[in-house]
Specification:
44% helix, Endonuclease, Chain A, 268 residues, single chain
Length: 268
């Protein structure tokens, strides 16, 4: 019985508009403890939504004899407000590059979303990519961010570490003014597993973490990925998701699975 009540209450809080739920909870708190389920159902706020009416009727009858009407009101109000706060944190936006269907409003472009996030960054920028090439606008936005005091970290793939699986070091796409001011990390080849052919794994992730937003996509930081390839991604603003994503890369760095890249060492 309790499981049935929980399921019905959850469905009711999903279906009910906020104004109706507030009115219903206020009404419940005004009913005497001796009121019957039939009495309560007949005096709940009216609704033209048959599904909502059915769920409200059902939850009242399931709660009858198990809790007071006041207790039911607080249970429903708490569940509804908790769900609303949870939904407010679940902002996910579809991103794209490449062709879009003629009969649909296209999603926001991956590169434009990335530029917007970088230009509005307040604290930190972390970019992870396999390849990078011909990204003058992106590097310009990153340089502006550094001039504003934003911490910029790049996790990049290299030809040597991938043993030739990437033919052009990603770092070459960034000007020296940027690479000397940013923190650069890479995945040492000796810390990679190898396949049966003896080739090491690739640093193939494409991720951007900028303040409290994560952008995860199939797109490398390249002109082709931004303007010609068919790429798809999502932009997520969710505290728990951000914490786990950021923590993953922070742990790789802390455990030296990702190592700090030295520009001076590379030049030598």
């Amino acid at each position: 019985m309790q499981d049935d009540f929980t399921t019905t209450a959850e469905k009711l809080t999903q279906k009910a508009p906020a104004a109706w739920m507030r009115s219903a909870c206020e009404a419940l708190r005004g009913f005497p403890a001796t009121a019957t389920a039939e009495f309560v159902v007949s005096r709940l706020p009216p609704t033209n939504n048959s599904d909502l009416s059915f769920l409200a009727n059902r939850v009242v009858r399931q709660a009858y004899g198990m809790m007071s009407w006041e207790a039911l009101s607080w249970a429903l109000q708490t569940a509804h407000e908790t769900r609303n706060r949870w939904q407010a944190d679940q902002h996910i936006e579809l991103l794209w590059s490449g062709p879009s269907p003629a009969n649909q409003i296209p999603a926001r472009r991956i590169d434009q979303a990335l530029y917007d996030l970088i230009s509005n960054a307040k604290h930190e920028i972390l970019l992870v990519t396999f390849a990078a090439a011909k990204i003058e606008r992106l590097t310009g936005e990153l340089l502006k961010a550094i001039q504003r005091g934003i911490r910029v970290r790049l996790i990049l793939e290299f030809e040597q570490s991938s043993e030739g699986q990437l033919s052009y070091d990603a770092i070459k796409a960034f000007p020296s003014a940027l690479t000397s001011a940013a923190e650069i990390y890479y995945w040492p080849v000796e810390k990679r597993e190898r396949n049966q052919a003896g080739r090491p794994g690739k640093l193939h992730a494409k991720v951007a973490i900028i303040d409290e937003t994560a952008l995860i996509s199939s797109a490398n930081l390249t002109d082709d990925a931004f303007n010609r390839n068919l790429e798809v991604g999502i932009m997520v603003t969710n505290p728990e998701f951000l914490m786990k994503t950021r923590s993953y890369f922070e742990s790789l760095i802390a455990e030296t699975i990702l190592a700090r890249f030295s520009i001076n060492l590379a030049q030598n």
